[in-house]
Amino acid sequence: MTTGLADAMTSHEVTYLEAISQALDEEMSRDERVFLMGEDIGAYGGAFKITEGFLQKYGDHRVLDTPLAESGIVGAAIGAAMMGLRPVVEMQFADFISCAFDQIIEVAAKNHYRWNAPVPMVIRAPFGGGVHGGPFHSECPEGWFFHSPGLKLVAPSTPYDAKGLLKAAIRDPNPVIYFEHKFLYRRIKAVLPTEDYIVPIGKAEVKRTGGTISVITYGAMVHLALEAATVLEKENIQLEVVDLRTLIPLDKETIYESVRKTSKAIMLHEDNKTGGIGAEIAALLAEDCFDSLDGPVLRVAAPDTPVPFSTPMEEFFLPKASDIVAAARMLAAY
Amino acid sequence: MQTEIIMPQLGESIAEGTVIEWLIPVGGRVEKDQSLLEVETDKVALEIPSPSSGFLTDVLIPVGQTVPVGTVLAHLNTDSPDPTVVSRVGGVVVRQMDLSPAEEDHYSPAVKQIAREHGVDLSLLQGSGGGGRITKKDVLDYIAQQDDTRKTVTRSVETEQPVTVTQDEKVLPLTAMRKMIAERMVKSRHTSAHVVTVFEADFSAVAKVRENQPLTYLPFVIHAVARAIRDFPVLNSSWGEAGIIQKRDIHVGIAVALEDGLLVPVVKHADRKRLTQLGHEVTDLAERARTKKLNPEEVQGGTFTITNHGGFGSLLSTPIIHQPQIAILGVGAVQKRTVVINEAIAIRPMAYLSLSFDHRVIDGARADSFMKKVKSYIEQEEWGQIL
Q1: What is d(CA B146, CA B149) in angstroms, rounded to the nearest whole number?
Q2: Which domain does A177 fall in, by range?
Q3: Number of domains chain A is built from
Q4: What's the pLDDT tens digit per position in B215-239?
Q5: Which of A67, B86, B143, B198 has a C-alpha 20 to 30 A away from that of B274?
Q6: Catalytic residue among A12, A137, A147, A223
Q7: A173 in the same domain as A216
Q8: Pick from A183, A230, A180: nearest CA to A210
Q9: Which of B87, B108, B130 is facing A333, going by the closest CB pair?
C-alpha cells in the first residue's frame, strides 16, 4: 500500500484527510458498485492526494480520470447511479460545482420525484477558505443546494465524522453532496475506531455542552466556536456548540433542544451571511421556539463578497473566534 | 483622548450618589456642558454636565447603582471609530444591540412563557439584563427564591420572616430618597427624647396683612420663629458629646412634600429677611424642591425646621426632629374657630402650633416659653411694618 492510501487497520491518529481516504477505501472494498470519478484523481492521486494509490489498488475502471467538465462528470455519474452503480464524484474545488449546477439541481435532485428513479451518488466538494486560495478556490457553495429540495448535504468537522458521514453518504440511496473542509484536511487528527462505523445522516451533535448560549454551526467553524467557548468559560458564559454535521435534512430536534435550554442562539457559518443556513435556522427558531427565546437570534458569518485572495483581507473576511466572543458577550448581557 | 466621568461632590457632606439615568446612549456624542447623566443623592437629583465633548464609549456604573464620590462612572473619547461597531465579522458589522431601557411590559418570549407556567407576576421582578430587562435567569431565580422562601417560612415562624410577596401584593422598589428618609426618621426617633407641646395661635393680624399681600401663612411663621429663636437661642442648637452646640446663624428648614418623599430646603438667615423676601424664597425653594432642581447646599445647614402640615388640613402633629437639630415646629391648618376674648365669644382664624423638642437639650418650661414667644409674634399687630 502506498503512503497516501490510509491503512484502515491501524489505530494511530489520522487526519481529517486520511479519514476521507479511509472511508473511500473501505467502501470501495466493501461494495464493488462504488467507483470514483474526478479531475486528476487517478494517476495524480487527486489535487489533495486523497485518492493517492487508489488507481493502482482498484484499477482504471473504478478510478476514472475525467476531462475538466463538471457538468459531464456529474451527468455521467447520474446515469451510472440510475443504472445501479454507486458513483463518488470529486469536485476538485467546491467552487467548480456551479458548472454542474444544472445536472445536480434539475436531474439528480428531481429524478426520484419525477419517475421514482433513485440517484444514489455522492459529490465530494472540498470547500471553505483559510488556505489562501482566493475567490475561486475558497468558496462555501452549500447555500445554493440548501435551497434545493431533493438533495442531502453533509459537512463534517472532525475526522470521525468525516469518515462516518462519507460512508453513510455512499450507502444512502439519494444524491448527497459531501462538503469537506479544506482547512481541516491536515490540521486535525483523531484516533478512529478500527471497526466499520457510520455517522447517520440527519443527526447533529452537541460538541460542547453549556447553558448560556447555543452556537449552531458546522464545518471548520465548529473549531472556532469551541475556541470561543474556552475564552468565554472564564467569564461564566457557557457556550453550547451544536455541530449540525448534516445540513439537509436538518436535525431540528437537537437544535431546538439546545435552544430551548439556553434560550439564546448564535448562528455561525463561513458562508455569506445573506440567505445562508444561519438565516434559515434563525427563521425556524422564530417559528418553532419563539416562546423559548430570551434574546435576539444572532448570525456571525462572512460578508457578502467574494473570498479575497490577499492574506490580510482573507483573515478579515473569515469569521474569527473573537467575533463569536464579542457576539456572545453582547447576547449574554442582553 | 479619553476622559473619565466621575461621581461629583454634590455638596459638603455628601459621600455618595446614585446614577438615575444616562442621558446619552453608549456610543452617543455629547458636547461639553451638555447634560450627560442624572444623579440622585439623598436630597437632590442633579443633571451632571459633560466635562468635555466626545463619545460616551463605555458606561461603568449602570442606572440604579449607588457609588462613592470620585468613582469613575464612564469614559468619554474624543475620537470615535464608528461607535456602534462592536465587532467586525469579516466586514459584516455587528451592531450594538439596543440595550436601552425596555418598555415596561416588554418581556422576551421565554420570560413570558415561564412566567405563565409558574404564575409569576413579572411586575414584581427587578431585571438584570440590558436596560434593566428581565431575563429568563431573573425569572428562574425568582421562582427558586420563592420556593426557598416558602420552605423557610414553613420551617421557622419565630425567626424573622423573609418578605414574601403573594399574587395580590406588589413590591414598590425603594428609591434612594425613600431609603434615606426611612433611615433618618428611625434614627432620629432613637436619638432624641421627643416631647411635643401644642400652642394655639390667633392669625387675625396675619390674615389682615394677607388681605393686601400675596403671601401664605408660612413666611409669617418663619419670621415669628426666627425672632423667637433670637430670644431663646438654645432652640437653635444641637446635641454634642462635649456639650450643647449653639449656632449663631438662624437657618430655617421648610419641609416640602413631594410625590414620593420629602425635601427640606433651607431659608438661610431667616431672622434677617423681610416678610416679602421670605415669601419669595419659600415659594421658589418649594417649587424647585418639587421639580428636583435644588442645589445641594440649599438643603444643607438648617438649624431649625418648620413643617407646614396644615396645608393638607391637619390640625395637630408630632413631627420627628430633623437631626442634628433639637426642635421642629408643626403648623396646623388655620381655621376659623370660636374663641373667648374678654368674656366674649369671637370668631378668629386659629391654628395649632406643635413643637417637637429634644428633652435632652431643653425642658418643657423652656420650650413653652419659646412657643409663647412664637405665638405672641404671630399675633402681634405690627406685621404691616415689617413687610
Answers
A1: 5
A2: 3-191
A3: 2
A4: 899 999 999 999 999 999 999 999 8
A5: B198
A6: A137
A7: no
A8: A230
A9: B130
